[in-house]
Amino acid sequence: MNHQDNIRIITAGVEDARREQREQQAPGLVADFKLTVDLSKRNLYELPEEVVDVFKTDVERLQLAHNQICYIPDSFSQCRPLKYLNLRGNLFQEFPSPLLSLPQLEILDLSVNEIRTIPESIRSMRSLRVLSLTKNKIWNVPICVKDLDTLRMLKLAGNPLRKDLAAIVEAKDTHLPFDEAATDNEKETFITSNLKHHLKVEAASESGEGSR
C-alpha cells in the first residue's frame, strides 16, 4: 500500500460516513451533525497531511485502531471538533504532540503502542476525561497529571511502571471500596483518583525538600 492508497481509503471512509448520515437524516431537516468515522483495521501506515482537510470540520469521533500508523501530522491539531480518538494498536513510540492542541478531545485511546513517556505538556488537555495508555512502555507519570481536573480515568495497566505507581495501578497496598460487582470504569476511576493523590503528595514532598 502506498501514500495515495492511504489518502484514497481515508477519504472514502469519511465520504461513506457523510452519505450514511444524509440517508438517516429526516427529509427537510437541516442539522449540523458531527460524524463518526471508523477506519480501524484498514492497514493504514500513515495519516497523510492531505486528508486532514477532509475531516477537520465535522468529524467528532474517529477510529484508527489496529493500523500501522506511527506519526500524526502537525495539521491534525486543526481537527477541533474531535471528542473521541482511538489509536489503539498502532506503532507510536512517542505521544503524538498534535493531540495536545485538540481543545474538545475527551476520550483518547493510545493503548497497545510503544510509547515510553507521558509529556509534561499533557497539562494542556483540559477537556480530557479518559486516557488509555495500557500496554505501552511507560515507566513514570508526570506530576502535572494531578492537575488535570477533568481526567477521570488514566489507564496504565501493562506498563513497566516504577514500583510505587505500579502498586497503585495494580490496586496493591490499596483498600478498594467496592465489591466484585463494581464495573471496570468504577475501578479505573478509583485507581486514577488514588494515583492523582499520590502525585500530589509527591509534589508536596518535593516542594518541601526544595525549600530547605
Provide structural commentary.
The chain has 212 residues and is an alpha/beta fold. Helix content is 28%, strand content 10%. Strands 1-2-3-4-5-6 form a 6-stranded parallel β-sheet.
According to DSSP, the number of beta strands is: 6
Distance between the termini: 60 Å
The biggest sheet, with number of strands, parallel, antiparallel or mixed sense and barrel status, is:
6 strands, parallel
Mean pLDDT: 90
Structural class by secondary-structure content: alpha/beta
What does the overall shape look like?
A: elongated
Could you give the order of strands across the largest sheet? 1-2-3-4-5-6
Query: Could you list the spans in which at least 5 consecutive residues all have pLDDT below 50?
Result: none
> What is the helix fraction of residues, given as a range?
25-40%
Cα gyration radius (Å):
19 Å
Strand content: 5-15%
Put the structure in a nutshell.
This protein is of the alpha/beta class and 212 residues long.
What labels would you give this structure?
single chain, 212 residues, alpha/beta, 4 helices, 6 strands
